[in-house]
Sequence to fold (274 residues):
Amino acid sequence: MTSRKVSSRLRTIVKAIGFGCLIPAIVIYIIVAKPDFRFANGIAHVAFPIFNAIGDAVTWPFRAGGKLVKRIHRVSVLEEENKELRAKLAAALAKQTDCDVAILENKKLIRELGVARNSDYNTVIADVIYDNSAINHETFMINRGASDGVEPGMVVISFENKLVGVVIDSAMHFARVRSLIDSATNIAVRIADSEVYGFLHGDGSNTPTVGFFSDHKFQGAKGIKLLTSNISGVLPPDIYVGEMENESDVNVVLPRNVSRVIVLKFTGENGEYQ
Fold:
């Protein structure tokens, strides 16, 4: 009984395949042997949709696979771009955090010490292009000069409002700056929030020394902050100079630790702000 059913199904499948193969042959025969355009057009309207459906069914796995490959590639590209954007965002946030911290520290320094602000002067931003170190001497070059309004006597500070040096020579497009550790440095200072005055002397080492003359009994100590005093009329007052690390030595900004500085347009020769 079972064998009869199987043979019956096989005969049905074979007949269907044979009929399917016979239809194209009949169509080709009619078109070639007895061309009748109306009949051919009628057959075409029926046959072509069937052939298209069969072709779509046969090629569907390949088309679906191609679309899947494209989607996978697109997802991988998006993942790479996402990683790159995340890295850039993290770097930008870190830089913004550093800037915010620097701004807060700057505001704190201005508030606590009453130091001079950049907004009190006309300023020029310059890059440090050369550091000239020699025995007992420390000068450096900046890429701004007379054409930018930079003149001898003007003050150079860091972006943290800390004194770095004083302009001593100015050419058309560059200038030379004497740092605080140069042996020729001798600037008037005072202790923050007090009337104790003294002079800061460079000696070629990384820590210049300070001596106080307005109160000979005063003893320096670690953590005391110094500002410019302007008692000699050479420098503008209230610019942060440095912090004492013991009774005489002062930690200051070293030229080798800065790459960009701000020139305050103040000329000590006539004692005027610009």
About this structure: The first strand starts at residue 123 and ends at 134. The two ends are 115 Å apart (CA to CA). The longest helix spans residues 37-113.
